[in-house]
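Below is a filled-in request sheet from our internal design queue. Each sheet records the structural input a requester submitted and the sequence that came back. We keep these sheets so that new team members can see what a complete request looks like end to end.

REQUESTER: design group, bay 2
PRIORITY: normal
MODE: inverse folding
CHAIN LENGTH: 233
BACKBONE (tokenized):
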């Protein structure tokens, strides 16, 4: 019995430690852990890309060497034809000319919304506060790219009713269907180092003049009064 009383203080201390442990365990599961130890960085606001732009095609521009795809729209391909009143027109080039004329020498401001499979920014771009993505669709030079966005569906419906741009064509094919039926050929293996050329097309000129670089072509376009387009082929 005397041995029990000798061990009693140790038993009491052990019991107290167990009780304290159970109390902390209970509080841990009832109360969520503090969030102060978790650093959460909210997504940063996409950086605006702005500057003078060169038109690559009806839905792609280039600002300071960076290619930018216009969000929510799809314009005809460069070599895509259509028939208007019995005459064949390269509607893709017409769309690119329309975009180049709209931009002129003005500063273009682009707000990225995403990146495409080529890692290019996909952006809503504006000139003087006007959304040029929507302008292209509203004037019939591009379609609303419904697969990715429905932002410009109403503009497309208006252009269709007015028979603007591509809506004058008797046999127009949607750009996504054209690309499916006309896949681009891979570069020839015999000439792996062959470089693409850049062609300058002044307004009304469908032949174009070849240049080695986009920068060289752009200088010529600026000397001409920022008219026409530089297109890589």
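RETURNED SEQUENCE:
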């Amino acid at each position: 019995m005397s041995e029990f009383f000798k061990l009693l203080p140790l038993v009491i201390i052990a019991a107290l430690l167990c009780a304290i442990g159970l109390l902390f365990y209970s509080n841990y599961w009832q109360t969520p852990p503090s969030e102060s130890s978790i650093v959460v960085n909210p997504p940063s606001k996409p950086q605006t890309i702005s500057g003078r732009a060169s038109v690559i095609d009806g839905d792609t521009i280039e600002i300071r060497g960076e290619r930018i795809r216009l969000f929510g729209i799809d314009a005809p391909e460069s070599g895509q034809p259509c028939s208007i009143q019995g005459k064949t027109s390269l509607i893709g080039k017409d769309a690119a000319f329309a975009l180049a004329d709209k931009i002129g020498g003005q500063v273009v401001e682009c707000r990225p919304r995403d990146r495409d499979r080529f890692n290019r920014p996909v952006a809503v771009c504006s000139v003087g506060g006007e959304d040029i993505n929507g302008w292209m669709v509203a004037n019939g030079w591009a379609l609303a790219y419904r697969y990715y966005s429905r932002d410009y569906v109403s503009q497309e419906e208006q252009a269709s009713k007015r028979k603007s741009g591509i809506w004058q064509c008797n046999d127009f094919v949607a750009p996504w269907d054209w690309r499916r039926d006309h896949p681009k050929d891979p570069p020839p293996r015999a000439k792996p180092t062959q470089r693409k050329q850049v062609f300058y097309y002044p307004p009304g000129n469908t032949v174009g003049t070849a240049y080695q670089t986009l920068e060289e072509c752009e200088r010529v376009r600026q000397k001409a009064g920022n008219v026409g387009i530089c297109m890589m082929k």
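SHEET NOTES:
- The domain at 49-189 is CATH 2.40.50.90 (OB fold (Dihydrolipoamide Acetyltransferase, E2P)).
- The first strand starts at residue 49 and ends at 57.
FILED BY: M.R.
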